[in-house]
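S.,

Sequence below, as promised.
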Amino acid sequence: MDKYRIMVVDDSRVVYAEMTKMLKDSEIEIVAFCRSGEEALEKYGEVKPDLVTMDIVMPGMDGMQTCAEMRERWPDANIIMVSSMAYDDMIDHAAALGAKGFLFKPFTQENLLEGLRGALKSVEK
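The prediction came back faster than expected:
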C-alpha cells in the first residue's frame, strides 16, 4: 500500500525529529519539512502532500496566515494545525480557514496518529 505523504511545517527541529520517530512504522511518511510559512508555500506545489501539519507560532508568516494562503492557492490542501497554545477562538479560526483538525503539543504517538489518520480519512489511497 502506498504511504500517506505529509509535509511538516514547524520551526522546531525537535518536533520534526519526534514526529519522524513516532511515524516510523506507520502508513504515514514525512516527505518534506519546512521551518517557516514562506518555505511551506514554496514547497507545497512541488511536494503536493496528502496532508500538512502546520505549527501556528513561527517567525515570519505564522501558521494561520500560511494556512489561509495555502488554501487560497490550493483549495484542496489538507491541513491540520499543531500548537501548544490552543484557545477555543484559535481552533474556531483554524476551522474557518479550512483546517481539518487541531493537534495539541506535546503529543503522544497515539494522539499524533489519531489526529493524522482523522485528517487523512478523505484522502484516497
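The beta strands are 4-9, 28-34, 51-55, 79-83, 101-104.

Coffee later?
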